Amino acid sequence: MELDSHPSFVARRGPVVVCIADGVGVAAEGPSNAVTEAETPALDQLYSDIHYTELRAHGIAVGLPSDDDMGNSEVGHNALGAGRVFAQGAKLVNLALDNGSLFAGPVWGQVIDRGRSGGTVHFLGLHSDGNVHSHINHLHRMLTEAATNGVARARVHVLLDGRDVGARSALEYLEATETHLMELNSTHGVDYRIASGGGRMTITMDRYGADWPMVKRGYDCHTHGIGRQFSSAADAVETMYGEGDTGDQYLESFVVVDPDGKPLGVMADGDAVVLFNFRGDRAIEISQAYEDPGFSAFDRGNHPEVFFAGMLQYDGDTSVPENYLVEPPAIDRTMAEYLAAEDVTSFAVAETQKFGHVTYFWNGNRSGYIDESLETYVQIESDNVEFNKTPAMKAAEITDATVELMRSGRYRFGRLNLANGDMVGHTGDLNATIEAMQVVDRSVAELMAVTKELGGVLIFTADHGNADVMYKETEAGRAPVTSHTLNAVPFAIYDPGYNGEYRLDPPDGAGLANVAATVLNLLGFEAPADYEPSLLTF
Questions:
Q1: Which range marks the domain in which residue 61 is found?
Q2: For residue 230, what pLDDT band results from cuts at 50, 70 and 90?
Q3: How far apart are CA 525 and CA 503, in angstroms?
Q4: Are 482 and 429 in contact (CB under 8 A)?
Q5: Are 491 and 46 in contact (CB under 8 A)?
Q6: Residue 96 CA to chain centroid, in angstroms?
Q7: Could you tell me the pLDDT band of residue 280, with boundaries at 50, 70 and 90?
Q8: Residue closest to 448 by CA, chosen among 36, 25, 41
Q9: Looking at residues 147-163, what average pLDDT do you find?
Q10: Which pTM does this prediction carry?
Q11: Phi first, then psi: what are they for 326, rounded to 5°?
């Protein structure tokens, strides 16, 4: 892997640093837009410069099925690091369902064999049509196929969303699945029921080892039937709604029981478990809990012998899970690989919540270093709290670490993620998200000052929107919006040494995948021929 030197541009003496402000989209000014409601003098300066444009960060521009699909941090960082657009989770699953390859593979065959041999098939996943981690249609199609293929007993374990969809939308999804299950039970004479559940930010869906007790709560609920008992999932949600104003994502774990108080979905030896999430970050830990024979993160109690399968393989380097239904995208020749081949030193900095995004996802779903002699990865431990309570998160610490790395003189390239706009935005708390944006702005101002001091280049962008739309007006009043958005994201170059060597000239439909070639140019290289074109004309 070799890069040619750029024919007309010599890199600046200082480092090129990419700052990804997670969840900071571009939307019209207004009281719902935490980005524009915040006092952000540094961002205002960048946005008014000649080296500012906006990039597509959702839909087909990042490999998702359609432009109705919101972008997310994983596909966004894949595109930023790979320089090309690869078919991503939902699109891959849709293709595998439509062409039948998902059901023709040996893993699905083993799931069906368990169900035909007297075992229960359990389907576990995020229960919505948000299309970021999962899609309810995928669940329904697998349930139908299982019933058609002779699986007599299935149980569904639902993780309530309220984050990629409406904050209190769980009941509509539960109604859709209950209707589907009743039709299957009637048509095929099977026993298919919803067995357990809880909010996605309360049980099961932790990531990066930030909160293993959260995973244990989910494991115990789904596996052993431990949780508040209700007659149905809808009864659980309605009851907890009546107990407070918490959104779906924070509802506690629950178990559906029969009239005698016996949980409907306790797992047993000989069962199969299908995790129908297709996105990897929040699926890895629960996968390990089910399939790792040496698992030690928490006590699993009487761990049943089950056949576990993921929708995709969530971590290819560590083979988690071992069994999966759909092949993940094969992302090769990332920007980081090219830079390592050219002996370019680099760093990546983020807090726990987004550390995998600037490493694993940026590197094309590859764990660990590409070349540890050239790279430094710094993870700042996230606080284990609801992020609207600490909207500053770890931005200051991330900025301090980045500044130290920049000033060391060792690194030619760096990347960092400021998670505030996304993680605080997901809480639906407008005032906290405005404060979070002001924290981000202070970090950007400091990075700009150090970039000028060192004679480098700072690129500011985002992976998707979120903080740009915090609520919508409905007949019932103001409804919080906790999901990502379909809006474009900012892209700005801060280059204090600029002397007319280039101009910003984005091609039609430019998206996040165009950033890699742009970065390579600013480092003094030509981009590979098959990368999405640079945003610059020299």
A1: 16-87+330-413+422-481+498-537
A2: very high
A3: 16
A4: no
A5: no
A6: 21
A7: confident
A8: 41
A9: 97
A10: 0.78
A11: -130, 135
